[in-house]
Amino acid sequence: MRTENKGITLIALVITIIILIILAGISIASLTGSGLFEKAKEAKNKSVEAQGLENSILNEYEKELIKASITNVDYTKTNPIEAMPKGSTIIEGDANKGIVIKDSKQNEWTWVEVPKIIFTSVKTLEENAPDKDLNKVSEAELYNAIKADLINYLTIPTNYRDNNYVDEWYALDGDTVVNERTENLTDIQKQLNNAYGLTYYEYKENYEKMLNSIFSNGGFWISRYEIGDATSTATNTARTEKSGIAGEAVSRINQIPYNYVTCSQAQELTDNMTPDTNKTTSLLFGIQWDLTCKFIDTKAGSIITKIDCKKWGNYGNSSLKLNRGKYNIMDPKTGELLNKWTIFSEDTLNYVISNQTSSDADYSQLLTTGASEETNKMNIYDLAGNEFEWTLEQFISNSRYHSTVRGSAYYNYGSNIAVYNHCGAIASGNCDYFCPRATLY
Hints:
Blueprint: H1 10-34, H2 36-68, H3 80-83, E1 89-92, E2 100-102, E3 108-113, H4 120-128, H5 139-154, E4 165-166, E5 170-173, E6 176-179, H6 187-190, H7 200-217, E7 219-223, E8 228-229, H8 230-235, E9 249-250, H9 263-270, E10 281-283, H10 286-300, E11 326-331, E12 336-343, E13 352-353, E14 356-357, E15 365-367, E16 376-377, E17 380-381, E18 388-391, E19 394-395, E20 403-406, E21 422-425, E22 434-435, E23 438-440
């Protein structure tokens, strides 16, 4: 019998594969020879370049539109547009009132102008650099020159200048305080978190980025309000004790300010408030607080930050006209808030608590953010009074109080404390009047 094999043989299959490979090679070679791959790659590159050019043009148009909405700005001295986070809108464009933006998270930020013309040391550094190029000087030289010019510009009143407080990283190595000036500071020590939760490298990076931003843009952003506790606002109850932080930290009007926050919690709250990954948010450095005071003094045409802050801050026995929001009376017998938030339209002056009225000497009240226009200077609310505000400074002359708060609080007397005021604080301070304020740069 004869059997017919109708299937393909192994030899035929191998030959077929070889022929296909040869044909494929010829096709690829012909395509390569005709330059189709190169032309496709060139077309892709041109498309990418065109898209980049289009984006650049759109960005320039957007900047011009924003620029048209801002008035009374000398762009040779300051440029808030270049410092704006992505997705922001101008809500107050008059620089004489204080430029305010709202970011994509609805947080409001006020521009603090630091005129570029003050950087005389940097200018000298540039003139002495090879080819007059600042890129050819060391970062340490540049940052030291920027810092020197800022300090020279501040001219802080002598009675408020306190060399015990410095913008400086520090940490506890066991029971020993180590800082940037510690001799033979080890890399292991530099990895320690300071009271604000920052390592030496994180603190240094943020500080240098802040200095460079001020130098490049002629200013920085500060939260328009004390940082509000969105969770407390929703429930209409202030925090009553130090505990874990939750909810969203916001710079918005009519918010109950955070309280009972430690300095590390305050830094955590202000970190990453902006969705723009090219920008940084944090607590203010001490030099930024002082620059804000200088800005208000300069633009408001007075010396209000150097004298009686009771005239524009929420302090004990201060008389303020409320325009919105709520107030919370402090019980003079216990020294604690009653946690009875009352809308501003109710009669504050005759509010009765513990058989005492607000005319008593110990009367004081905590306000929601932006409650009184009398506390508004250059579109920054409650810099004087309402709550103490943490800054990233070290108090270097006390073995117990290493951290720092600035300004003062609602129970103090403004006539005794200026907004330049420093106050040493325990890092884990458990106080109902310690609050964060943020910067963006």
